[in-house]
Structures are given as structure tokens and as C-alpha cells.
Amino acid sequence: MGILTGRRRFNLICQHKCGVSLYMDVVSAGVARGVEGKVIVPYIEAAYAASIHIQPLVCPSSFLKFPFDKALAHCYSISMHEQSTNVFRKGWCFILKRLFILLMAIMLLIPLAAGCGTDTSTTGSSGGDTIKVGLNYELSNDLAQYGQASVEGIELAVEEINKAGGVLGKEIELIKQDNKSDPAEATNVATKLAKDKVVAILGPATSGNVKAVRPVVTENKIPLISGSATADDVTVTENGVAEYIFRTCFNDSFQGGSMAKFAVDELNAKTAVMYVETTSDYSKGLAASFKDVFTSNGGQILAEEYYQGKDKDFRSVLTKLKGYNADVIYVPGYYNEVGLIIKQAREMGITAPILGGDGFDSNVVPQEAGAAALTDVYFTNHYSADDTDQKVVDFRKAFNAKYNKDPNAFHASGYDEMYFLADAIKRANSTDPVKIKDALASTKDFKAVTGTLSIDENHNPVKSVVIVQWKGDKQEFVTRIEP
Amino acid sequence: MAVLLQQLLNGISLGSIYALLALGYTMVYGIINLINFAHGDVYMIGAYIGFIATALLGLGFIPALLLSMAISALLGMAIEKVAYRPLRNSSRIALLITAIGMSLLLEYTTMYIAGPDTRSFPTVLTNRQYSFMSGQVNISSMQLYILVISIMLMILLQFIVQRTKIGKAMRAVSMDKDAAQLMGINVDTTISATFAIGSALAGAAGILVGIYYNSIDPLMGITPGLKAFIAAVFGGIGSIPGAMVGGLLLGMIETLVSGYLNSNYRDAVAFVILIIILLIKPSGLLGKNTGEKV
């Protein structure tokens, strides 16, 4: 920048041969007012650096660009005067600017300092009077409904547990983190929770995200419990069972298979088409197990088509699927797309029953599809609010009292996760994560809202599955299928 | 035959939305050589304005459409004034990054205010089904609305650009900004007007999509925004008829690929076709082959 740095202003006068003068207001430091200034500044800068005052000078025309070349090519002289008032102005500007920067710095530092303070105080209390449990959930973006519902269930459970005197005489303290429905973010959250010295992590809600987190929790030896990650390979890897991963929900082979059995036995289906989300482990897992059981029970899969998450238009594939005239359509997907698929299918005159998995359990489905489109829509689920089991009735009542709405399956599974963990901590009689892990693995006949469960050697709970129907904007309990 | 007809109908209604969005990209690119990445988010805002107008204010479809277009136009002008005008003379990469920043700002501000959840539109138009060929071909009244409104807007745009004074100014500025300025055209106003018109079209597309699919969320603009940008490039960026053709063709190709080939390879096949076309005709279908100005 040379000599022209700092915010100084100059009057620039170009005198043309014929006597016309061009006045320009140039702010230094390369910022010029007007297009003219832009062209001239580098030139002036160079000249100014050399000799302050530029005496009769002809602008080299090659230097100037169209359209000013015509106007300025024959410049006779250029002179420059610094505006006198600016010395004063600069002084004030200078002080104000520095003050402003100082203020900004203070404002930035205050929360940081405060943050540090609270951080140290919470880590200080680890192993003290609370048991810290980390929540790694989808609280924003496209799967937010699942995460938010699970966390509501967990918070209800924690409230009840703490009111009843906590676990091992200590209160449960939740450290809630948002993984933004993103596997990479979920991994970051897990690392952060491990640093916070939590005894266990609840969540994420979806299989893909749990799998992303698996290496982190295994390395840090912290047990992880998911209430809704249903993919088969969540708890089992190529090297055998994943030691630190547990779930309170059935897995996809069981879920997809149960739906296939229901389709064959109750709906008398002989043929089926599948419409699968191409990038989702959950969707592909369900489809594979549905296909297995459906074909081994004498059914026939006529076609398998794919969509992508966040798609909005499914008409072209639905047109194709309509041509197969299958008895049932299996759409193992998540609520956002499923609502739209049902709406568009019914609009196009497809009347076959539409079947799916627990991803159908969200009020977004009737909102998107419209109540009129929800006829013959069945899905497998962990729990139904209509169930008359005492445990379910009590849970529903408590949930209603706290949130003033009816719980869905994700609320129930969140609630179960917390009690499942509390039960294991009690049996382990310790807050050591490794001992908790062993206690979790040996769970037998634990009474949960979503059914009585025992953990098998693959860390899968052995429990029943519920078939629920969307009828208009209401869910109705259809039947329960035992393992 | 009936299936083909149905697929073409599906393709046209998807394509006309891409086309409406692509027009905004192409107009802005034509005039200041900027790929306005915030365009898809103006479309999202348009959908949210439509949602507020119909669900909260209880307006009908046409008033909601006009309101949404008007507010989107203002938003477009504001974005240009605040984010792009101060940088107009800086390097192109700076502008591009500002556009991406603007896009994220709009997305996450909406997410902060409206929440991340998907929302559904109230029923503002009774959706009737019309069947032909013994029920094999279905078209809904909503698809017809989309088609008619898009065609009307495109005709209106063509009229504005070709027949009005401001349209003439736009064409002049896009040809040579400096020369246009020397001829007494107010470049700032003209660029503002371009942003307003492009954004109004995006707003219209937003509310149409909101009602048609009955689902809006703060990140809904990303994918259609990218697709529309591709449609604009495909048709020849900077060319208005090109954007319309590009949008419609992209919609048709996607529909036909998932309808007749494997739906798993929809985007892959669609983009391979686009790459082939761009290899043969690098300036796009209707783009002019212009050499770099010296």
C-alpha cells in the first residue's frame, strides 16, 4: 500500500488539454469513489510514492480502460491535494475504531470466560453427587422429529427417577447435544461427551448415526444405548458383537419379517412391490428382510424401486409401480418422504395397501398425506398408545401430564432407554462404564413400556412387535406379533 | 402409450418448477455474471411466505401467490443491495462466496425462526383428479395450475424483457455494463430490477411447490436450487428461453429415466446425458458462443 495507507482523502484534479478539469474524490488505501477513481488510483499511488506532487504529466492511454480512455487519454496534468480536515477526522476515527474493536473483543471474551468457568465446575462434579448421562440426538434437520421425541421421553424418565431418589443415591444429570441428523456431527458429539466423562450415551436415534459413533464409544469404553436404531449391523460387526452398543428396540430383520408375515397371513398378499430409500441403511435392511420372509412364505416380489432422501416428486416411479398391480406396496422409509409417497400414490389412483416400518410413526405423515389418503396404511412399531397393558397406561398418563399430548413410539423408546440404563447401573452397583456395560448385556426380563425384553448374545432385545394402522389422522392398534 | 403420456405429464409438471427457478439463475448470471446460490433459498422463503399467508392470515391462493412474489422480490433486491452491490467490483470468487454465505444465512435464519420441522400447507385449492384413457392417465388440478401459472409467468417475463423499457435496459446492461452506463442507463436500478423479477419467479415456484407437495422445510431450497442451476447451464446460462427449455428437459429426463430405466440411477443417468450435451455444445442448448471480450 505504501504511502497511501490509512484512511486519507484526496481531491484529484485531472486537467484536460482543452481546459476542462475532472475533479475526483479519492479515498486512499485502494478504495476509490466512482469508477474513475478505480482506474486512476494505482497510478497515482505509484506516482505519489515517488514524488508527492505530480507535475505536468500525460496519462499513458494504454493504462486506462474504456470508456475513460477517450476522456482521459489526453490528460494534461494531474494534481492531488490531501483534504485538510481529514487529519482531525482521522484522529477521531482512529480512536473510535480502536474503542469499537476493544468493545467487541470484551464482548467475545465474556461468554468464553463464563463458559470456561461453568465447564470446569461440571467436570469437577464428575463422580460427585450426580451421574452424568450423555444424549447424542437428532435435534435439528431432517430427522429432528425422532430425536426430539426420544429426548422428551428420556427427560420424563429422568424426572421420575430423580424424584424417586435417583440411582445409587445420586441424581441423574443429562448432557444434551444436537448431532444435527448428521453422522459426522454425531461422531464429534460422542467425542465431546466422552471428554465430559459421561457414564453412558443415549442415542443417536437412527442406525446410520449409531454406526458412525460406534468406533468412538468403543475406544472410550462408554456403553451406548439406542432406542430406535433398528439396522441389524448396528450391534453386530464383521468382528462379532459390538461390545459397547445396546438397543432397546427390535432389529430390522425382525421388523421387516413381521410385516411380511402380516401381509401374507392377514392381508392375503401374493405379490408385492418395494419402494426403498437408496441411501438409507434402515430402509435397505427392512426391504431385505421383508423380501426374505415374503418370498419364503410363497409371496412374490415383482419390483424393487428406489428414491432418495429429500425427494419430493415420486410420480414417475409410482406410475411405473402402478403398472405391476401388486397386492401390497412396501415402503420402508422415514416420515418426510413416506407422507408424500402415500399422498401421491393415492392421488394417482393406487389403492393397494401401503406397508412400512416404525419410520411411519410421526404426525408429519397425516399432515403431508392428508387424512383422506390414509386408508390401508399399516406399519410395524415398538408400541401402540392404544395398548391396555398397565405399564403403557401409566406411561401415557405421566407423559400426558408433563407434555399435554399423547406419546408416540419414540417417546416410549426414549423413556425405556433411560430406565434400562438406570436398571443396569443399579445392578452393577457402580458408575463405572465398563461394569454398566456388563450389567446391560446380562439384562433379563426387563419390563419396558415397549414390551418385556431380554438382551441376547448379539445385544438385540428379544421382544414383541406391534402392527399399527394409520386410519385418517389416527393410529389404531391392529395386532401384536411375538418373536 | 398411456403410461408414456402419464410420465410426460409428470415430467412437465416437475420441469416447469425447475424452469421457473432456472430463470432467476440465468437472469442474474446474464446481467452480473454471478451464480446466485441464494436463489434456491429465496424459493424457500417464498414457500414460507405462502405458508404464513394461507395458514396464519387465511388468504386465498391468488392473494397468497401475489404476496409471496412481492415479498420475494423485495428480498431479492435487499440481498443484492446488502450483499452483492458493495462487492460488484471485487473479484468473482468473493461474490460467489458471499452468495453461498447468503444462502446459509437465509437457511439457518429461517430454521431459527420457524424451527427445523417440516410444515404442511392448509388446503387452499380443492385438488380434483381428472382421468383419461380409462383411468390410466391422471392429472390433478394442482398440476394444471402449476403448468398454467408457469407458462403465464414465462410469457410475462418474455414480454417484460423484450418489450418494456426496463427490459431493454436489462439487455443493454447484460451486453456491456460500462457502455450502458455511458448511454444514461442507471445500472444499479436495472440490476435491482433483475433481482426483483428473478426472485419473484422463485417465490412463485416456492408457493406452488409448497401447495403441490404439501411439505416445506428450511432446507427445501438446496436440491431444487442445484437442479435449477444445472437446468440453466444445460439450456445455456444467460439465455432466458434456454432456462425454460433446460428446466423442462431436465424434468422430463429425470422422470423418464426413473420411469423406464432404474430409479436408483436417476440422477446419474440424467447427469450423464447433461454432460454429453455440454461436451457437444459447451455453451448449452440455446447459449450463444461468445468469445472472451478483449
Biggest β-sheet description of chain B: 2 strands, antiparallel
Strand neighbour order, sheet with most strands of chain A: 12-11-13-14-15-19-20
Fraction of residues in helix of chain A:
40-55%
Shape of chain A from CA axes?
A: globular
Morphology call of chain B: globular
Strand content of chain B: under 5%
Strand content of chain A: 15-25%
**Over all CA atoms, what is the radius of gyration of chain B?**
19 Å
Summed up, the helix count of chain B is 11
What does this structure look like?
The complex is a heterodimer of chains A (483) and B (294). With 483 residues, chain A is α/β, with parallel strands linked by helices. Chain A is built from 14 helices and 20 strands. Chain A folds into 4 domains: 2-83, no CATH class; 88-124; 130-249 and 401-456, Response regulator (Rossmann fold), CATH 3.40.50; 253-381, Response regulator (Rossmann fold, 3-Layer(aba) Sandwich), CATH 3.40.50.2300. Helix content of chain A is 43%, strand content 21%. Chain A is globular, with a radius of gyration of 34 Å. Chain B has a domain at 17-220. The mean pLDDT of chain B is 89. Chain B has a two-stranded antiparallel sheet with strand order 1-2. Chain B contains 11 helices and 2 strands, in the order H-H-H-H-E-E-H-H-H-H-H-H-H. Helices cover 72% and strands 3% of the residues of chain B. With 294 residues, chain B is an all-alpha fold. Classes of the chains: A alpha/beta (483), B mainly alpha (294). The interface between A and B is large, with 34 and 42 residues.
